Amino acid sequence: MKEVLPQFNSTFSIDCVVFGFDEGELKVLLIERNEEPFKDWCALPGNLVRVDESLDQSALRILKELTGLGDIFMEQFYTFGNVDRHPQGRVISIAYYALLRLGGDKALKPITSYAKKAFWKNISDLPKLAFDHQMIFEKGLEKIKRRIKHQPIAFELLPEKFTLTQLQNVYELIMGKKLDKRNFRKKMLSFGVLKELDEKQKGVSFRAATLYKFDRRKYAKLFGKEISF
Amino acid sequence: MKEVLPQFNSTFSIDCVVFGFDEGELKVLLIERNEEPFKDWCALPGNLVRVDESLDQSALRILKELTGLGDIFMEQFYTFGNVDRHPQGRVISIAYYALLRLGGDKALKPITSYAKKAFWKNISDLPKLAFDHQMIFEKGLEKIKRRIKHQPIAFELLPEKFTLTQLQNVYELIMGKKLDKRNFRKKMLSFGVLKELDEKQKGVSFRAATLYKFDRRKYAKLFGKEISF
DNA sequence: TCAAAAGTGTTCGTAATACACCCATGT
DNA sequence: ACATGGGTGTATTACGAACACTTTTGA
Question: Residues in domain Nudix hydrolase (chains A, B) (predicted)?
Answer without folding.
Answer: 11-143
